[in-house]
């Protein structure tokens, strides 16, 4: 019976770790979206300030991933 109890605790710990990872993944995804939105707004603000007639797609550099 002792081994059964130990295995149940192990299963619970693995489930807890899985939930923490899913939460962290969700947070990273949210931060990536927010960063993209802020970056887009910054570029649009600069374009309006300089009154450039350059298409937006040419101004935007490639997206970089956020590593947490």
TrEMBL record:
Protein name in UniProt: Uncharacterized protein
Annotated organism of origin: Parageobacillus thermoglucosidasius (Geobacillus thermoglucosidasius)
